[in-house]
């Protein structure tokens, strides 16, 4: 102990003495500290997890097509398993949390990366999508792709609405289940009304209305116990099994706000024939707004 004190005192005396060694040492220390501090903070920033988004929706809606636009190209055929691709947002779209950053800031490029998980839309493979939603930690949003042309047929509408209803129910349960502890907050949902290049496609506003009306029907059918919910997530029996407040009357997406789920409907087309152009900017802008 005494030896320690002695060494400490000797060291202190030395550091305050006007020797050239002490002065150089102090100078170097004071110059390098800010640099080390900067490097430390920079590393921490770089280790931030990439925000992730999930693509889901009925089979043939155009999820894989949309992903191929920015990620690595894969053949579009019915997907069998989920795949995650890291994409970079297109230039010209500003990430919400960085709108005040200089455009030539080198970290801006890094911050534009997102991870998108494409899930299969086939009825029997939807568990993949539900698992992805419940597991993903840095989940920033859900993109539910629908074929706006298929919605004009009763089967197409019913399939899309059932899947959407179940997805929203999963999200609602995720939110209710998290209330007790510090858990995941609400997740924003984008309903991407795809294939608007087709003559038979319904415009985005109509897509919204049709889906809401159909979910009203599904909800009342399920409430009567005529149909079992396809979603079965562990939890209390007291958990609400119906969508939205009370589960009665007409459903509209605004009712999801109670579970902190903001639903937006935006139109576009992920593929185009001939000299027509793909229209996907609205969707990328929405993605950027969630980051
Ligand atoms: N006309 C038109 N066709 C599209 C558009 N987007 C996708 N398609 C076509 O729709 C078909 C299905 O697209 P996919 O991307 O494979 O559909 P998916 O949603 O991945 O389907 P699953 O993998 O089965 O869940 C393909 O033949 C695409 O070329 C669009 O905006 N307009
Ligand atoms: Mg696919």
UniProtKB/TrEMBL annotation:
Membrane topology according to the record: Single-pass membrane protein
Entry superkingdom: Eukaryota
Residue stretches spanning the membrane: 20-42
Keyword terms of this UniProt record: Endoplasmic reticulum, GTP-binding, Membrane, Nucleotide-binding, Receptor, Transmembrane, Transmembrane helix
PANTHER family from the UniProt entry: ADP-RIBOSYLATION FACTOR-RELATED PROTEIN 1
InterPro entries linked to this entry: P-loop_NTPase, Small_GTPase_ARF, SRP_receptor_beta_su
A single Gene Ontology CC term: endoplasmic reticulum membrane
Cellular localisation: Endoplasmic reticulum membrane
Protein name (database record): Signal recognition particle receptor subunit beta
Alphabetized Gene3D superfamilies for the sequence: P-loop containing nucleotide triphosphate hydrolases
MF GO annotations: GTP binding; GTPase activity
Record bears the keyword Ribosomal protein: no
Species whose genome carries this gene: Aureobasidium vineae
Family of this protein: Belongs to the SRP receptor beta subunit family.
């Amino acid at each position: 102990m005494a030896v320690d004190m002695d060494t400490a005192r000797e060291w202190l005396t030395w550091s305050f003495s006007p020797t050239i060694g002490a002065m150089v040492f102090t100078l170097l220390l004071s110059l390098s500290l800010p640099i080390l501090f900067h490097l430390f903070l920079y590393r921490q920033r770089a280790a931030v997890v990439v925000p992730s988004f999930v693509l889901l929706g009925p089979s043939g809606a155009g999820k894989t097509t949309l992903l191929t636009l920015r990620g690595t190209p894969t053949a579009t055929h019915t997907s069998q398993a989920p795949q995650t691709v890291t994409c970079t947002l297109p230039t010209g779209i500003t990430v919400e949390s960085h709108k005040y950053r200089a455009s030539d800031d080198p970290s801006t490029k890094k911050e534009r990366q997102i991870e998108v998980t494409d899930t299969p839309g086939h009825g029997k493979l939807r568990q993949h999508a539900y698992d992805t939603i419940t597991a993903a930690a840095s989940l920033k949003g859900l993109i539910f792709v629908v074929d706006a042309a298929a919605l004009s047929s009763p089967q197409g509408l019913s399939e899309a609405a059932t899947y959407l209803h179940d997805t929203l129910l999963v999200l609602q349960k995720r939110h209710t289940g998290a209330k007790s502890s510090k858990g995941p907050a609400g997740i924003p949902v984008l309903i991407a009304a795809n294939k608007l290049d087709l003559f038979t496609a319904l415009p985005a506003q109509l897509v919204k209305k049709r889906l809401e009306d159909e979910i009203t029907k599904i909800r009342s059918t399920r409430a009567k116990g005529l149909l079992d919910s396809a979603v079965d997530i562990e939890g209390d029996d007291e958990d609400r099994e119906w969508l939205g407040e009370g589960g009665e009357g007409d459903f509209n997406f605004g009712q999801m706000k109670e579970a902190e789920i903001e639903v937006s409907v935006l139109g576009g087309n992920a593929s185009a024939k001939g000299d027509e152009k793909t229209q996907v900017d609205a969707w990328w802008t929405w993605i950027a707004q969630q980051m």
